[in-house]
């Protein structure tokens, strides 16, 4: 599983990209932030519980940011990983 070895490099890039929303972007449009979110969701299903250690500290930091992009990305990232970890977490 290549993703397991690349997770420490890949997840920070995906999270940073999710916070690069465009002003006035349509909710239904596909762009780099939504592509990063889709990728994070897929990574979460592969690495399962391990994703929590990468994503949750970032979510906790960004959720209270003054920048709306950071807050929105934090909520989106949290939602993206919901199918990854097992129910015990």
- Uncertain regions spanning at least 5 consecutive residues: none
The largest β sheet comes out as: none
Roughly what is the average pLDDT, rounded to an integer?
Answer: 90
Helix/strand-derived category reads mainly alpha
β-strand amount: under 5%
Total strand segments = 0
Cα shape: globular
Question: Could you tell me the radius of gyration in angstroms?
Answer: 13 Å
Cα separation of the termini: 22 Å
Order of SSEs, N→C?
Answer: HHHH
Count up the helices. 4
- Helical fraction: 55-70%
Structure description:
The protein contains four helices and no strands. Helix 1 packs antiparallel against helix 2, helix 1 packs parallel to helix 3 and helix 3 packs antiparallel against helix 4. The protein is mainly alpha-helical and 89 residues long. The two termini are 22 Å apart.
Supply database-style keywords.
single chain; 89 residues; mainly alpha; 0% strand
Condensed summary:
The protein has 89 residues and is mainly alpha-helical. It is 66% helix and 0% strand.
Explain the layout of strands and helices.
Elements: H1 2-18, H2 32-47, H3 50-62, H4 68-80
């Amino acid at each position: 599983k290549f993703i397991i070895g690349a997770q420490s490099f890949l997840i920070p890039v995906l999270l940073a990209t999710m916070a690069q929303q465009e002003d006035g972007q349509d909710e239904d449009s596909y762009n780099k932030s939504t592509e990063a979110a889709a990728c994070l969701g897929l990574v979460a299903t592969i690495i399962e519980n391990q994703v929590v250690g990468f994503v949750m500290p970032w979510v906790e930091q960004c959720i209270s940011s003054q920048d709306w992009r950071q807050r929105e990305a934090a909520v989106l990232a949290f939602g993206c990983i919901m199918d990854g970890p097992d129910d015990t977490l």
